[in-house]
Amino acid sequence: MRPIVAVSATSRPTEGAERVRLNEAYVSALHQAGVIPLILPPLDDTAAVAQVLGVVDGLVLSGGEDIDPIVYGAERHPATGAAHESRDNCELALARTARAMGLPTLAICRGIQVLNVALGGTLIQDIPSQVGGAQTHDGTAARTDRVHRVSIFPGTRLAGALESHDIAVNSVHHQALDRVAADLRVSARADDGVIEGVESCDPRWFALGVQWHPEELTRDAEAWDRRLFSAFAAACRERAASRKENQPLR
Ligand code: MN
Asked: What is the C-alpha to C-alpha distance for residues 187 and 121, in angstroms, rounded to an integer?
């Protein structure tokens, strides 16, 4: 039995109707890693979110819109994009519930920001105007181009997953983590100091966040991003096995 993973999604008006959306790259990357992705709509219902996480083996927080700065107590910067309230509420509840349940979590781009904010951290709202000497993190390059280096800190779960301390990544973000939540530690930075990875400080909780888009890179010549999904899949399989053991006998 393969593990089943909930993948958060957005909604936006498309061809005359509000539609639930997720980039297909998440689906392929997860399926390729041996897990079954289930797309979860932006459901503004904390109890429903908790119920969903009770029947899956892992969670992926996907990329997307800027988080409403009101959530982390900041004034809105002019460059911050329009808020998606139901998605914010849904994903903050997903992250907090996953933390409480110890559910394996992979948080990508907006996802790493959701994870940090959900656990009490804050964000830099616009790298170009707020980080002196920053390199380009939101270029016009293709989503699969590895445009900047990232240093992975030795001894982190991320370094173990990637089997490397120095990689190159794609980069499609203008926001980044500022103050890191107490439950998280930094696992990776770009050369300009921008945080590119965080992970859970609790060894019992597999939670990795990355600021790049590994789901776009799993068909790349370099194996780093495939390894990241493999490590997540292994954590989800372990979770699925322990869930099975704990099921009551019929
Ligand atoms: Mn970047």
From this structure: 15
- The reported pLDDT for the residue numbered 180 is 98
> The pTM is what?
0.97
Return the amino acid letter for 58: G
Enclosing domain of residue 15: 4-245
Residue 205 Cα, ligand 1 centroid: separation in angstroms?
A: 25
- Two tokens, residue 187: 């696992």
Q: pLDDT at position 140, please? A: 72
Number of folded domains that form the chain = 1
pLDDT at 244: 76
Residues with CB under 5 A from ligand 1 (ion): 137, 171
Is 31 annotated as catalytic?
no
Check 109, 148, 196, 216 and give the catalytic one. 109
- Cβ count within 10 A of residue 156: 19
Catalytic-residue membership of 213: yes
Res. 126: pLDDT tops 70:
yes
pLDDT in tens, 141-167: 799 999 999 999 999 999 999 999 999
Task: Respond yes or no: is residue 84 known to be catalytic.
Answer: no
Is 250 among the domain residues?
A: no
